[in-house]
Protein: Acyl-CoA dehydrogenase family protein
Amino acid sequence: MWDFETDPDYQRELDWAAAFLREEIEPLQYVVPNILDRANPVREALIPPLQRQVRERGLWATHLGPELGGPGHGQVKLALLNEILGALPTAPVIFGCQAPDSGNAEIIAVYGTEEHKKRYLQPLLDGEIYSCFSMTEPQGGSDPQTFTTNAVLDGDDWVINGEKWFSSNARYAEFLIVMAVTEPDGSPYRRHSMFIVPTDTPGVDIVRGVGHTGFEPLDEGTHAYLRFTDARVPKDNLLGGRGQAFAAAQTRLGGGRIHHAMRTVGMARRALDMMLERAVSRRTQGELLANKQLVQEMIAESWLDLEQFRLLVLRTAWRIDRYQDYQRVRGDISAVKLAMPGVLHRIASRALQVHGSLGVSQEMPFMGMIANAYHMGLADGPTEVHKTTLARSLLRGVEPAPGLWPTQHIPAKRDAALAKYADVLTTVGPR
Structure:
């Protein structure tokens, strides 16, 4: 159990991870433009040795249970580690827990065949290949009722046609997990099936790369706009049964949402730390920024935002460990998901403001953080959807008032109290 104090043995591992991040991983961003690009010889010389150190430390892929080669630390320990890794976007790759591979591994582990696990899952877990989750479509975003990409069984093959949008890391992926309509007459959430599609399959084309921070050159983003034209995959590449795509997707989305939140804690803390350093370093109008009351207000509000959010994330992680049922904690996961973009946006924006013109430049990371906050408000379901999910979970099971007035109606409560104590009031008299 976690009770606001981490056990000493695991705290030593966290301290090691923090130092490793600071000393070994942070400098990489200045010499390795894209950590997923295996064609870069500098990347290949630097990244695998660091990954080996993480493995030797027992911190590789800690989101996985022992049956998949991970330590099975559980969500609370994973949260404590991820809030360290979240400070740098490159760190999860070094520790074997990057999205979307972590969620895709869970899907294949649950719904894949033994051949799938041998050919795709094990290399993915070993960090030898990368994958892509391909669900969203250009004409309707993530609304399944608008999806038109379809797969038709033709002999021993599924033939896939359609387009996908914002497919994560498609540029560097060895295979895609694609959601396609196979049951057009089914209900909205039973029309789709999920497939493993190797990226070198004839008929799979990257129309263009899609960036998502505002700084990547046009057409060169790691996400992608994809087109499938009579792309054929073996019928055994179906994950789970026909019409089970959304059940399979929930295997990854529940964990994916909380993992994004864990990492966001780290990114927001980094922004706050930079704000604090700037406040005690920069002078204006004859005094330090730290002495300005409005700067102090920004610092105080940022600390409150961060700590409240962090406790909500840890509580949600504890509930996942406690109940081992994502559906039972669906409302809690929606709560951290909808809080996440606002917390990061507010803290990064305040940090940018304290840095002045330097903050808005490409010489500081705040604009990227702010763009990432908007990304977090859309990835794995938009904030608005999670608001309704949380509200419905809170409303579920609440009994309506039995009569005309609310159960906490003061006149009614007063009348009930007078009736309850009538004998005493008659004997002693009112006061």
In short: Strands lie at 131-134, 150-154, 157-167, 175-181, 192-198, 204-210, 223-234, 238-239, 283-284, 287-288.
